[in-house]
TrEMBL record:
Organism from which the protein derives: Nonomuraea longicatena
Residue numbers spanned by region Disordered: 1-27
Superkingdom of the organism of origin: Bacteria
Keywords: Membrane, Transmembrane, Transmembrane helix
Residues that span the membrane, as ranges: 36-60, 97-119
Annotated Basic and acidic residues bias: 1-10
Descriptive protein name: YggT family protein
């Protein structure tokens, strides 16, 4: 019986060829640095959003203002509020804090995602 090239189930063995290296070692390092920078931007924005959310919850549920955690979160929230503090005037100050700081938390999340995307796209 004659053998045709298409009749073989297993390809003929060829000498092993090593994988192609990256187009330069610096490209791999650059990619890692950009990835780390994107991670840092997202982590920072999520941390800021967490602080905003915690302060809103502390206010809504009437946390003890003399507690060290409440004072710590309140100080950070004042710095990170992006000017949303006192934006709305509502009848209940608890709702006011929830809306103002909740909106600030959403803005932090959106800004963090946008900046991370821009960093990723701007990288060569």
């Amino acid at each position: 019986m004659s053998e045709h090239p298409g009749d073989r189930l297993v390809a003929r063995s060829r000498p092993h060829r090593p994988a192609r290296p990256e187009p330069g070692a610096e490209a791999g390092v650059r990619r890692q640095v950009v990835g780390l920078l994107v991670w840092a931007v997202r982590a920072a924005s999520r941390l800021a959003a967490l602080v905003m959310t915690l302060y809103a919850l502390f206010t809504v549920f009437g946390a003890n203002p003399d507690n060290v955690w409440h004072r710590f979160v309140e100080g950070l929230a004042g710095l990170l509020s992006l000017g949303f503090e006192g934006l709305f005037r509502l009848a209940d100050p608890r709702w006011e804090a929830l809306v103002d700081y909740g909106l600030a938390a959403l803005v932090w999340l959106v800004l963090g995602s946008m900046v991370a995307s821009l960093v990723r796209r701007a990288a060569p």
